[in-house]
Amino acid sequence: MKALVLQPDRTLRLVHRPRPRVTAPDDVVVRVVQTGFCGTDRGVLLGKFPAVPGVVMGHEAVGEVVEVGAGVTTLAPGDRVVANPTLYCGLCRWCRRGALNFCLHKAGNEIGIDRDGAFAEHLRLEERFLHRLPDGMSYDRAVLVEPLACVMNNLAAGRLRTGDEVVVLGGGPIGVLVALLADHAGARARLAEPDPYRRAAARTYFAGIPGSAVTVTEPDLVAARSAALVVDTVGPLLERACEIADDAGRIVVMGFHERATATLRPLDLLRRGLSVIGAGDYNSHIFVRAVELARDLPLEGIVSHHVRLDDFADALDTLGIAPGAAAPYSGMKVVITTGGGR
Length: 342
Ligand SMILES: [Zn+2]
Ligand SMILES: [Zn+2]
Hints:
By secondary structure, the chain is α/β, with parallel strands linked by helices. It has helices at about 40-45, 95, 140, 145-155, 175-185, 195-205, 240-245, 265-270, 285-295, 310-320; strands at about 1-5, 10-15, 25-35, 60-70, 80-85, 120-125, 130, 165-170, 190, 215, 225-230, 245-255, 275-280, 305-310, 320, 325, 335.
């Protein structure tokens, strides 16, 4: 099969790999229909997030089951599924306490990061990490379920309440999802994004949602102390997020950025009653609820480009991934397709 493999110099190469087969009783092989290109993937290629050279990248996968192991009982060939790429062992002390996203064996278990992922024609995964799609849910909607699960976890950790003023820093797919979900929950969301393409795309998206009250703005126009909840979906904006938060505000750090640092004065946090919250990606218990919630949310409008595996260089251009540097965006959610139907 064709697969996009991470090279030691942090580039991608299209290679031929043997197609994965069922080896364990709970293995399932999926024919990948499409896989979202995530901000984390972009971060890997730009040196902001670590991944293991030699892995097939890609973790936001949807597709169709083609082969199941002898012990698989909940899935059958032909089922349409979405993958939960945040694997867990179920046995370590964190898993036994229910904190699955802090599984001690998580390193080595993140598909597309340190174990083969889904920028490929086929993907093998254990049965429990695949979820059947509700009837009628399009693959374009389902491909946003994994990011939606992250956003649900982070907004819950940020104690989002109806009527909250929420400022979302970063208007990429994750920022748009945060604003969408905050709006859905009855909060007043402002989305701040410096990139003109992404600002325009976000405005168009929310304008098409009846009843949406999300506003889209430039980051410089967001006033200090104007939000009960600030979500940094970019990663290096913690200091700015603390300025924007009102007294007693909550700040959720959501963007993965290996090199970002911040200087905070503990006395400011204390006097102003600020909470700085890190929630990680998501607890897998949330995933099944994300599949359900996706029934109610027009997620497919976030997908701006479908790029075939063979043309992956176009996806990098669209996401402003130039060798060793970041360039402007000309896309929102880009998905890599393998030629199957949507
Ligand atoms: Zn992702
Ligand atoms: Zn574990």
